[in-house]
Amino acid sequence: MKIRKITLTIAGATMLAGAAAAITSAQAATYSPEPRSTQWCHETFGENQHDLCNYYNWASENARVLRAENDPQAEDYQFQADEALRRLYAEKKQGI
Q1: Contacts of 31 by beta carbon, 8 Å cutoff, 6+ apart
Q2: Distance separating alpha carbons of residues 67 and 74, to the nearest angstrom
Q3: Separation of alpha carbons 83 and 90, rounded Å
Q4: Spatial contact of 96 and 74, defined as CB atoms under 8 Å apart
């Protein structure tokens, strides 16, 4: 019985470690410690997207600063930046 409990404990710990590693690698792929320049958005999407680019830059910079401070609100700002970026790409694809 003890062997079974030990085996289940080891299996559970292994699964948890694997999940943590997957999350860490996903975050590493998503978040760069070096932010893009504020001009990147304007150069990529054009000056007609000035307001949305400014919003994207603001949200992504706040997310970066809060993430460095381990503030959980960083995820909210990153979500808003990601939504702005999705909209920018969608409008570029539509030719807006």
Answers
A1: 64, 67, 78
A2: 5
A3: 10
A4: no
CA distance 85 to 69: 24
Torsion of CA 40, 38, 26, 86, to 10 degrees: -70
The three-state DSSP-derived secondary structure of 13-28 is: HHHHHHHHHHHHHHHH
**Cα–Cα dist 80/58, whole Å:** 10
For residue 56, the SS3 value is helix
Q: pLDDT, tens digit, for every residue of 26-83? A: 454 455 556 778 889 999 999 899 999 999 999 999 999 999 999 999 999 999 999 9
Q: Quick one: the chain helix, strand, coil %, rounded to 5?
A: 85, 0, 15
